[in-house]
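At this stage, I needed to go through a protein sequence along with its fold in token form, as given directly below:
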Amino acid sequence: MAFTYALGSSDPDTLALSRVRLELGDQVEGNGVLPSGANLQDEEIGFYLTLNANDIAVTVAALAGVLSRQWAGAADVQVGPRRESLSQVSARWATIAGDQATADSLDGGSSFVTTLGRVDGYTPNGT
């Protein structure tokens, strides 16, 4: 399995994979986002990119959901006064997944906004 991070790449597949890593914070090999500290593998990211027609935002949302489920099994730890709430990491990834799923596409997606006019000529406040 491989790790690739090259935002300056001219290869569209490598660039898409790198953009997903950037959005997830998985840019440093050996210091990854999985509970074990490992990185997502290129093949795993590539699978979700293919599944989601190379849509970066949807892929990030899907992988954040995967990370939420992975972190759900992490236990909270307390040793003396020190406490680590690892289960909160799962909740954070779930929030990212939900936020990302509703955001515009990171590929420059646009919103469509229009103002509807009344055909009867009525305008509020007489203006």
Remarks:
- The two ends are 65 Å apart (CA to CA).
- Helices lie at 12-24, 42-51, 56-72, 87-102.
- Residues 12-126 form one domain.
- The longest helix spans residues 56-72.
